[in-house]
Amino acid sequence: MIVFDSVTKAFGPKTILRGISFECPTGKSTVIIGPSGCGKSTTLKLLLRLIEADSGTVRLDDQDVGKLDRPGLDDFRRGIGIVFQSAALFDSLTVWENVGFPLIEGSKQSSTEIRRIADEKLEIVGLAGTGDLYPAELSGGMQKRVGFARAIVCNPAVMLYDEPTAGLDPVTSTVIEDLINTIRDTTGATGMVVTHQPTTIFRTADQIVMLHSGNVLATGSVDDFKNHADPAVRNFIEGRVDEVTTAK
Ligand SMILES: Nc1ncnc2c1ncn2[C@@H]1O[C@H](COP(=O)(O)OP(=O)(O)OP(=O)(O)O)[C@@H](O)[C@H]1O
Ligand SMILES: [Mg+2]
Predict the structure, then answer these.
(1) So what's the pLDDT on residue 106?
(2) Which residue is closest in CA terms to ligand 1's atom 3?
(3) Which helix (H) or strand (E) holds 87?
(4) What spacing in Å lies between the alpha carbon of 179 and ligand 2's midpoint?
(5) Mean pLDDT across the stretch 15-38?
(6) CA 12 to ligand 1: nearest atom
(7) Rounded-to-integer distance, Cα 95 and Cα 174, Å
(8) Where are the beta strands (DSSP E) in 120-237?
(9) Can you list the domains of the chain with their CATH numbers?
(10) Whose CA is nearest to atom 18 of ligand 1?
(11) Is residue 243 scored above 60 in pLDDT?
């Protein structure tokens, strides 16, 4: 499981995280919510050690992310699949080459083997048979799914999603939410999903962690949040309040 233990982080004079602690159980999806600028994306970057915590620890099972040496960190990162808001595919590569791209560099696998793995991942995301197409031949929603296939090509134990449904129409959002659940169920990967969208919270969360003003304001299931004593928490997940924007 992923553990954040008393993690603090400041950027210059601006303290973003004031000692946050939470756990993301293995094989479950933890949805991170909170106002814009509260540090949601920062938690994902701390897990990847793209940025370092000022104090506290971030752990995956028995590994302290802050203590990994360079080769250890490279190995650790290979075990993490990442999906951003945009699919960020290479236009000049076919769909299967995009999916297999993380395997090509430094790989001992033949291109036939990489193609086989890419096709297997395309099938998981519901895109069987599209390997020879180019990204431009796919709809935006399909391109997003190619991004998901690429994210799981190295069989990650952890999947990170940063605003995976932002800017999508409701139908495509639903497809992506289903896919997040499919990946959890078929690969057993532990998920961290950063999102603002109530549907995405409700449809993907095994657990919700709400950050606010540098602290964990609430942790629990969707039902716990819907029945939370603090109206700010209830309103926030229902999308009923304008977002309280913290200083950027
Ligand atoms: N590398 C950095 N240097 C300086 N400030 C940063 C850096 N990364 C993030 N910040 C600041 O830290 C705060 C938290 O950023 P973060 O991206 O984690 O917010 P967020 O909760 O993901 O917000 P949003 O919902 O808008 O994506 C913001 O005020 C941001 O401007
Ligand atoms: Mg963010």
Answers:
(1) 65
(2) 11
(3) none
(4) 21
(5) 96
(6) 4
(7) 22
(8) 158-162, 190-194, 207-212, 215-220
(9) 1-79+158-243 (3.40.50.300), 87-155 (no CATH)
(10) 39
(11) no
